Amino acid sequence: QQPVQSPQAVILREGEDAVINCSSSKALYSVHWYRQKHGEAPVFLMILLKGGEQKGHEKISASFNEKKQQSSLYLTASQLSYSGTYFCGTEGFGSGAGSYQLTFGKGTKLSVIP
Amino acid sequence: GAVVSQHPSWVICKSGTSVKIECRSLDFQATTMFWYRQFPKQSLMLMATSNEGSKATYEQGVEKDKFLINHASLTLSTLTVTSAHPEDSSFYICSAPVASGRGTQYFGPGTRLLVL
Fold this sequence. Notes:
The structure holds 2 protein chains of 2 kinds.
Chain A lengths: L3 E3 L2 E5 L4 E6 L4 E9 L6 E6 L5 E3 L3 E5 L5 E6 L8 E9 L10 E2 L3 E6 L1
Parallel strand pairs in A: 2-11
Antiparallel strand pairs in A: 1-3, 3-8, 4-5, 4-9, 6-7, 7-8, 9-10, 9-11
Chain B lengths: L3 E4 L2 E4 L5 E7 L6 E7 L6 E7 L5 E2 L8 E7 L2 E6 L8 E8 L7 E3 L3 E5 L1
Parallel strand pairs in B: 2-11
Antiparallel strand pairs in B: 1-3, 3-8, 4-5, 4-9, 5-6, 7-8, 9-10, 9-11
């Protein structure tokens, strides 16, 4: 089941903050965040496994809610290099032992302008 | 982070020809690799799971006879698009999980296929 990402797109000026959300109707085993620049493959940002978990550093961080149905990616003091499309990839329970399959949201296009 | 390579980066071919794309894990072994397809401005759609030593698992709607997958070794998986048609033109990306348990997947740089 494809997770729902919001917003679809966001435009920021350098230094502004943004939050990207990823939600599922069912509890998830894990949430993975990736950033993809135009014409390139996705680059891994972070993975969250535990309910209530928060990780990352002060500029880019993410949280996973207690029910493990929603994750948010926080981008603070944005830089031009943050521009790209952000995808969350979710792994559900019951995918089968060792399956590791991820289902990706439709993406959030982030544009940072000077 | 772990490195996954893909070859070739770009392919332009005539309709009806077959194209082979290689995905290699350079510094780790991958018993499982994933093949995705991404159309412009769309999300990554999982096509199939490649399993070393056994048959690939295809997602619903993906023709196994058209997209042949061979996981020849613990570091190499290949995707062959047989009798390619213009509608097969897309960005094909492979990924591999690093750890034996659930964890981070690293993506290859992708292969852009254009079928004329």
